[in-house]
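Sorry to interrupt, but I need a hand with the structure work. Could you add the entry underneath, on a fresh line?
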Amino acid sequence: MAVSSLEFWLTVMSIIFTITTFILLTLPSQYDERNNSKEETAPRVQVLVLGDFGRSPRMQYHALSIAKHGGYVDLIGYRDSDPHPDLLSKPSISLLAIPPPPRFLQTNNRALFLIYGPLKVLFQLWSLWLLLGYRTKPAKWMLIQNPPSIPTLAIAQLICFIRNTQLIIDWHNFGHSILALKLGPKHPLVRISERYERTFSKSATAHFTVTDAMARVLRQDYHITAPIFPLHDRPASHFQPMNSPERFAFLGQLPETASAVDEMKTGKTKLLVSSTSWTPDEDFSLLLDALVSYSELATTSHPYLPDILAIITGKGPQKEHYLSQIAALNDQGKLEMVTIKTAWLSMADYASLLGAADLGVSLHISSSGVDLPMKVVDMFGAGLPVVGWAKFEAWPELVKESVNGRGFESADGLRRVLAELLGGDGSELRKLRDGATKEGRRRWDDEWDPVAGKLLGVCK
């Protein structure tokens, strides 16, 4: 019996030893600066966004800035739309696509989300483990976008621990606040998400935030002690103001605006642009209700108001819902003075559209109150004044009332602002355009180099 027992435990120990050895031998390789090849004298950075990196301009700008200063980048994300063209021409930037989850796991149904959500997370975990641990070289830094928080923060922490990589979280918003839009703020999953986000963010080496207000929340509410650097969004170089000949030349070529160019030249029609993700944190009904009210005003007591051509760009889950509403309002004659068109444009055409428009509209409500819409920054880069939802804490960090834009807090408030800016002698709109152009002069490189560039070691 003693011999059998000894044989049994020797067998168990042998199996445990074999499994442990196998795990250790197959773990991802570690970063060691001494092992850098002669070709790679600058840092290597993994830039991760658990989303379409073609629709994540800030993360693309990070990658381009790192490469511009000699660094090496593995840009990891979903590839559902075309990335910035410069990414494809940089040999020091590698684009790695995360495989999309199976279609049956993708749903907007609240009940099914509670079932399919965990399965989708498991699929993402496995995909990221392979990409971050085995398909990429060991990196000195990993820079991740948050949100989404689940499972990005957890898998990033694990990979960074195993590979001796330093983690930086780039906070665009809070994941739990966005989840609350879908499930409600008191839902158990929202509370779990918040605890998860607080827990897995504390061990990062450093943090970037898009606003000063967000940095304050991380310090005071999340009790983060690692360095926190506000890194405000700034426009990239391809967003530029346009002069009048350039403006009308472009609008004459764009299918969505070509038929109205003559009216825009005379001022009979004003061009409004709004970029939206067609999601609950951008309430499109605000703009729709304001345009209906504006049209009624222009056909009754304010006949001097110009027609509006509104170009709405972007993709998202609520698009078809609102397109059907627009069609119904047109059939009812409630948009007599307004034409609404949707468009999905290349980056170059979108930048030109902003430079050619009369007024930009931001519908970003802010689930957390401390994030800011990057689309406003792009509009300022193109010299385009902005009207936007202003009922959240961080709004004044970017938009100065009656200097480079105007705020509103209701559909009626938006209608009043539109009537004031579009129906006057143009002086107020010109003043705002001057302010937007001035604000847009500080560019991404001016903001990035002394903050992120210095931290990553690619700028002095």
About this structure: The chain has 17 helices and 13 strands. The first strand starts at residue 44 and ends at 52. The chain has a mean pLDDT of 90.
